[in-house]
């Protein structure tokens, strides 16, 4: 049976109440609320509590990973660990999942979503990569990098940058993330779990479970994650442009 037992919680005097998970009030009934300053974004709250799954960081239980993948296939929104920090993930073609991520993070339509891929064969189905760029990307992956590249027609239009027609892609160096993408059978649509008004991502799965209960459908935990998001490199113009400095070393692109 999948493990759903939260980790032992350290004493935290400043732990927030779950109702304070975002700058707007959480609801305990199925409802859509518009957070302040979010444009058209609507937060979806459900009657269901988020499921919590605790897996081994080096040998994740296959049945548990399958359960989380099934949640994604059913248009669910999950939180999962990566080699940089925790991330939000949903099915590639899930309009509902995309809208939920936009609302939770208060994102506009210029935000680059990331396709988390299993390997280069899968990555190559969704972005155009010439030989020089391929060598540079290959040398840095798997790792804590997101690469912005011209998208192929396989990428849903709602994921594309409205002007550049680009999308972010990455191959994480993380056993649990890789196992999830492998089981899913397609790239995982992903975005760093960084809540509005906060400087760093959350690092502990049990706290995410408390603060995003009734907002996400599942939390997959394998231990504490880091606080740095991926390093973002834009190759859409041919030459590497460092968009964001994060967990990945930028020296190879400077």
TrEMBL record:
Cited Pfam families: Sua5_yciO_yrdC
Listed InterPro entries: DHBP_synth_RibB-like_a/b_dom, Sua5-like_dom, SUA5_domain
Gene Ontology MF: a single term: double-stranded RNA binding
Residue stretches making up the YrdC-like domain: 62-248
Record's protein name: tRNA threonylcarbamoyl adenosine modification protein, Sua5/YciO/YrdC/YwlC family
Species, as recorded: Streptomyces wuyuanensis
């Amino acid at each position: 049976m999948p493990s759903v037992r939260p980790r032992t919680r350290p004493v935290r005097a400043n732990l927030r109440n779950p109702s304070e998970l975002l700058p707007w009030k959480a609801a305990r009934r199925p409802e859509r609320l518009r957070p302040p300053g979010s444009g058209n974004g609507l937060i979806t709250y459900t009657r269901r509590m988020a499921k919590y799954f605790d897996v081994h960081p080096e040998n994740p239980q296959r049945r548990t990973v399958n359960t989380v993948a099934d949640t994604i296939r059913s248009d669910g929104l999950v939180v999962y660990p990566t080699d940089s920090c925790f991330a939000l993930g949903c099915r590639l073609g899930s309009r509902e999942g995309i809208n939920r991520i936009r609302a939770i993070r208060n994102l506009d339509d210029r935000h680059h979503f990331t396709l988390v891929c299993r390997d280069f064969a899968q990555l190559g189905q969704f972005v155009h990569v010439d030989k020089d760029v391929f060598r540079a990307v290959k040398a840095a992956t798997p790792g804590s990098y997101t690469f912005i590249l011209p998208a192929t027609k396989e990428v849903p239009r709602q994921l594309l940058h409205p002007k550049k027609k680009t999308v972010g892609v990455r191959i994480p160096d993380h056993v649990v993330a890789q196992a999830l993408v492998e089981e899913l059978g397609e790239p995982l649509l992903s975005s760093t779990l960084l809540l509005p008004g906060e400087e760093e991502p959350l690092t502990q799965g049990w706290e995410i479970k408390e603060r995003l209960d009734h907002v996400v459908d599942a939390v997959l935990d394998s231990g504490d994650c880091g606080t740095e998001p991926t390093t973002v490199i834009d190759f859409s113009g041919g030459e590497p442009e460092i968009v964001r400095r994060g967990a990945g070393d930028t020296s190879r692109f400077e």
